[in-house]
Design goal:
202 residues; alpha/beta; three-stranded parallel sheet; 31% helix; disordered C terminus
């Protein structure tokens, strides 16, 4: 019998190129899902925060069954583990036989899918003449994902990320893959002007 495939984070990022991913998302968002549910477990942490375990299954009858299993441990950001606060795996089963088909790095998959959905939404909502973009938030999605996918969807644009603290913005600004596309950075309690060729954003 055929064995189950395993895809790590590097393979996910390599195989899910953004143009193909966005087109696939456009197609599949139009399809019905026969059944989808979510289950959430939570536990308090010693710091007063809350950790979560999420099971997010979906079923397309006769085609595929999948479940994303997610842990959210906010204390990871402060305990020196070096681990992200959100980690996940995705398990895919055959919809006709129930055979396990693949186990996929869910953290990388989530980064790619969320970025792809952002690009798809911007495609339908943003004017094609837009020359500047403001991205609210500078977390895990910001450095290598959302800015790049928006730029890929609309061509060369200037993007101004917004975050809650200057420290977060400094971390984002240090990522080489986005430096060329970021004109200015701003915090939520400080106003800066994001410009493209000297013209302020309206």
């Amino acid at each position: 019998p055929r064995t189950m495939d395993f895809f790590d984070a590097d393979q996910v990022h390599t195989m899910l190129d953004y143009p193909s991913l966005v087109e696939a998302l456009r197609e599949h968002h139009l399809r019905d899902i026969d059944e989808v549910r979510s289950n959430v477990l939570e536990q308090p942490t010693p710091t007063g925060a809350t950790s979560y375990f999420l099971a997010l299954p979906a079923w397309q009858r006769g085609r595929a069954i999948g479940a994303k299993l997610v842990t959210v441990f906010p204390d990871n950001e402060h305990t020196g583990t070096g681990l992200p606060s959100v980690q996940a795996v995705y398990v895919l089963f055959d919809g006709e036989t129930g055979r396990p088909r693949a186990c996929i790095d869910g953290t990388a998959l989530t980064l790619r899918k969320t970025a792809g959905d952002s690009a798809m939404g911007a495609h339908y909502l943003a004017p094609r003449s837009a020359t500047n973009m403001l991205m609210v938030g500078a977390g895990a999605m910001a450095p290598a994902q959302t800015i790049n996918i928006l730029a890929a969807e609309f061509g060369e644009r200037k993007c101004a990320p917004m975050a809650e603290t200057p420290a977060v913005l400094r971390k984002v600004s240090a990522v080489p893959s986005i430096q060329a596309r970021v004109k200015h950075f701003t915090t939520s309690n400080t106003t800066y002007t994001a410009c493209n060729h000297g013209r302020p954003m309206p």
